[in-house]
């Protein structure tokens, strides 16, 4: 590769960054000037409820359990997605690839059993 090919990258990359930053700044400025004026609620802390006043005065905390289950769902889905390329290339990987995948499945099963034993997957 020639030396001058990096020169184009060194010129166009900062130019692209500056152009995109300028465009975002202009869009922000125009949205503040042309957009709807910002209105505060009477108490200043009312959350947005689709334009309707809230029906409850007490603020209930969001259970952490939902976030835990969502995180576990994402993690186990990512592990399943790691198995798809292995299944597609099983013939090419041979016995060594098969053993590596079995070790991976063993770790996955141990993590799943641990989460099940801890009760993270229960419905409460």
Characteristics of this structure?
3 helices; Methane Monooxygenase Hydroxylase, Chain G, domain 1; 124 residues; mainly alpha; single chain
State the CATH topology.
Methane Monooxygenase Hydroxylase, Chain G, domain 1
Rounded Rg: 26 Å
**CA-based shape:** flat
Q: Compute the separation of the termini in Å.
A: 62 Å
Q: What integer is the average pLDDT?
A: 78
Query: How many structural domains in the coordinates?
Result: 1
Beta-strand portion reads under 5%
- H/E element sequence: HHH
Q: What is the class in the CATH system?
A: Mainly Alpha
Main β-sheet: number of strands, strand sense, barrel status? none
Assigned CATH architecture: Up-down Bundle
Tally of alpha and pi helices: 3
Uncertain stretches: none
| Helix content class | 55-70%
Global structural class: mainly alpha
Strands, count: 0
Structure description:
- By secondary structure, the chain is mainly α.
- The protein has helices at residues 4-34, 64-88, 90-118.
- The protein has a single domain (4-118), classed as Methane Monooxygenase Hydroxylase, Chain G, domain 1.
- The chain has 3 helices and no strands.
- The longest helix has 31 residues, at 4-34.
- The radius of gyration is 26 Å and the shape is flat.
- 0% of the residues are buried.
- The model has no long low-confidence stretch (mean pLDDT 78).
């Amino acid at each position: 590769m020639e030396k001058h090919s990096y020169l184009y990258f060194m010129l166009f990359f900062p130019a692209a960054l500056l152009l995109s930053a300028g465009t975002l700044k202009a869009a922000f400025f125009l949205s503040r000037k042309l957009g709807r004026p910002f209105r505060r609620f009477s108490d200043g802390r009312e959350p947005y409820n689709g334009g309707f006043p809230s029906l409850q005065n007490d603020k209930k905390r969001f259970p952490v359990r939902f976030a835990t289950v969502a995180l576990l769902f994402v993690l186990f889905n990512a592990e399943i997605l790691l198995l798809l390329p292995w299944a597609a290339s099983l013939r090419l990987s041979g016995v060594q690839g098969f053993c590596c995948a079995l070790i991976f499945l063993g770790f996955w099963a141990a993590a799943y059993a641990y989460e099940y034993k801890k009760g993270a997957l229960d419905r409460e």
